[in-house]
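OP here, attaching both records as promised.
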Amino acid sequence: MITGAGAGMGRALARRFGRAGVEVFLSDVDLPAERETVRLCDAGARVHLDEVDVSDADAMTAYADAVVGRSGPPAMVFNNAGITMVAGVLEEDDEYARRIMAVNLGGVVNGTVAFLPHLQAAGGGSIVNTSSAFGFLGCPTQSAYSASKFAVRALTDALREEERGQVRVCSIHPGRVDT
């Protein structure tokens, strides 16, 4: 299961897993972009797409239940959806900065809370949370993004300790990614 599959790393993951013949469940708020991702996956791939806003906890819970109802618990959950803006702290659009936190951190929380019980019941699986190199080092003109990615890293570290190996939990911290 991959969130943020309409572009970037989510699209690249979907294409790679699709080419490998893995059944893939994709979600994004941009359904036309997600359809393009499906088109780019190999024709034989088993790809399912849904329009889901990761910042909506109820929508993510319903989505997780639907995915599990169709194919059982996924082996891997990629909480990947993310957005950013480039602006100094005083120039940031406050409403959009809050949206960044809702998508980048809230989406990881919602995806984890929605899928984790299913993975636990199945006896395992993996949750992969997309943080960023800016989750280690704050970036000028991207304070909201950096804050959200620091929080994703901390949440993932805490969850890894809680799970102690039953469900594998990790965060990834890409720098500039040319997808």
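Record two, same layout:
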Amino acid sequence: MTQRDSHAAIRHLLDQREEAQVRVLADLVRTPSDNPPGDCAPHAEVAAAHLEKLGFEVERNPVPSDVCRAHGMISATNLIVRRRYGEGPTIALNAHGDVVAPGEGWSCDPYGADIRDGMMLGRGVAVSKSDFATYAYAVLALEALDPRRGTVELHLTYDEETGGEIGPKRLLETGLTKPDLAICAGFSYAVTVAHNGCLHLAVEVRGKSAHAARPDTGHDALEAATEILAVLYRERDGYTAHRSSVPGIGSPSLVVGLIEGGINTNVVPDRVTLRLDRRMIPEEQPQAVEDRLRAVIGQAAASRPGIAVEVRRVLLARPLQPSAGAKGLADSLARNASAVFGTPVEPSGVPLYTDARHYAEAGVPVVLYGAGPRSLLDANAHRADERLALSDLRGASEVVARTLAALLVGPE
């Protein structure tokens, strides 16, 4: 079969099943899977039922309840579909079904999967329930070409919003899967080869309480915390001088997103906690970043008598760096995306962090690609009226199927 014939066969199958694919996505959106609270096993069962109707055999891997609780979740079931065609590479396709809570400001039911002007609206429709459908139908289209080598696996997991520790990382560390390459959920006009890392620190500032009429008898934790904040913001001002060499990444960032403390209005506060988010560009070393922040915080508090500071790491997500082993996959996806969407698509980076890092840390070359608009902002991701153009769902499915065909059927 020529390349033209294989592309035509892929298009034909996806055209035939376009309405069914949209119905599957709508059902996934209508099934809540907010994380937190993270009660996601029911959504996994809905997804598994759809996959089985499509003819796939689904491995259900429930995460033990104590492990879920330790990661701030109620329930999660990881799903694996394996399609073995013969000797050759194993390619994993990973998407996550957990989503952030809807929040306020929606113009429709966030679980309604309403369709307006060719767009489906709903929480998770773009990030990343869409790629449950993208990848499943891409595999069906691939199989219309009768592949004779390699293996494709679907990895459908449920804890990306809380770090991916019991999703992709668990699948890889327990030996349930050993892929040679991986594609993780992404955006239809972007082939992502790098992303930021993220460090969350909890900073507890402790002093001594006192009556507000005699503040001199206490040690004000809030006053010390304001000095720490000022030093952190001065530190942040210098980040703009450092820009990643990867297009789309930009500079490091720092946000103090949460402050708690105090006893009452008429009491000198004896304890204040800060939670900060430090985004790292791929060129940065996470340990060096953490050491620097700890030093800056410690120095800011050192001049304050009666003040003690404890810094605790809450989360570390390492940056995803461009990989030589993933270059061929990225180039193939970019070439096919450019052809299908009729616009130039180049490999680039994004200034957030994803589950792709778990594959990279396990030594698996990985690229992010999937259904979605040109950017997270276009998708209203993590905002009201999250949306996905159904033409992008159809197009991304074709791009993935073409790329899998190049790897498992024949040369491009």
